[in-house]
Amino acid sequence: MNIVVSSSTAGLSMRSPVRWRVAWENELRLADHIELSDFFRKTYGPTGEFNAKPFGDHRSWAGARPELRVIGYDARGVAAHIGALRRFIKVGDVDLLVAELGLYGVRPDLEGLGITHSMRVMYPVLQKLGVPFGFGAVRHALKEHLTRLLARRGLATIISGVRVRSTLPDVYLNLSPTRVEDVLVLVLPIGRPISEWPTGTVIDRNGPEL
């Protein structure tokens, strides 16, 4: 089921309209993966060759494979992307169902598009899935950006002082099998209030990062 959510994006009148598609992973064709792979290499490449490495050979995911994707398109092709995957993580001693959010990207010429536009499309999708929380891990350098765009609008809570442990995907098998990162945790209350998010300074994905 592919859903065109909107035909334009407010605030981008000087650019071509952006339409949003919600797609389950099984609905994507080879041509979609090729297009997304090219998008991620160009989007993540400027942050370092290592970050673009997973997206070779038409691969459109880096670690864990998303369950569904929100993809923005304009006249030039893929404009923005965010993926989601339902999984159980362990927060402290508590096993918790979340929808992990990851693979976020905006084409370099569309920085004004912002994460809020893709999240406005993703949020009702997560509500339909019935998950208690959305979850993501981001770099500390993005704290001010995410606070302005998400936290201050009541869409998410940013939690610091947490380490997240993950297994490494197959493209990094020559490295240590696990990685522990000091990151900011982004929590979106979906079916339960933020007051019910478990306390804990370590989160185990027990799998690769999305």
TrEMBL record:
Compartmental location: Cytoplasm
UniProt GO MF annotations: acyltransferase activity
Pfam families: NodA (PF02474)
The protein's Enzyme Commission number: 2.3.1.-
Entry keyword annotation includes Calcium: no
GO CC terms: cytosol
InterPro entries cross-referenced by the UniProt entry: NodA (IPR003484), Nodulation_prot_NodA_CS (IPR020567)
Swiss-Prot/TrEMBL keywords: Acyltransferase, Cytoplasm, Nodulation, Transferase
Predominant place of localization: cytoplasm
Role this protein plays: N-acyltransferase required for nodulation. Acts in the production of a small, heat-stable compound (Nod) that stimulates mitosis in various plant protoplasts.
HAMAP family given in the database record: NodA
Family statement drawn from the similarity comment of this UniProt entry: Belongs to the NodA family.
Protein name: Nodulation protein A
Source organism of this protein record: Bradyrhizobium icense
